[in-house]
Amino acid sequence: MKKILVLPGDGIGQEIVAEAVKVITVLQQQHGLQVTLEHDVVGGTAYDQKGSPLPDDVLAKAKAADAVLLGAVGGSKWESLPIAVRPEKGLLGLRAGLGLFANLRPALLYPQLASASTLKPEVVAGLDILIVRELTGDIYFGQPRGVRTLPNGEREGFNTMVYRESEIERIARVAFDSARKRNKKVCSVDKANVLECTELWREVVTRVAKDYPDVQLSHMYVDNAAMQLVRAPKQFDVMVTGNIFGDILSDEASMLTGSIGMLPSASLNEKGQGMYEPIHGSAPDIAGKGIANPIATILSVAMMLRYSLAQPELADHIERAVRKVLDQGYRTADIYTDGTTKVGTMQMGDAIIAALRHG
Ligand code: IPM
Ligand code: MG
Question: Could you give all domains of the chain from N- to C-terminal order, each with its CATH number?
Answer without folding.
Answer: 1-101+271-359 (3.40.718.10), 104-268 (3.40.718.10)
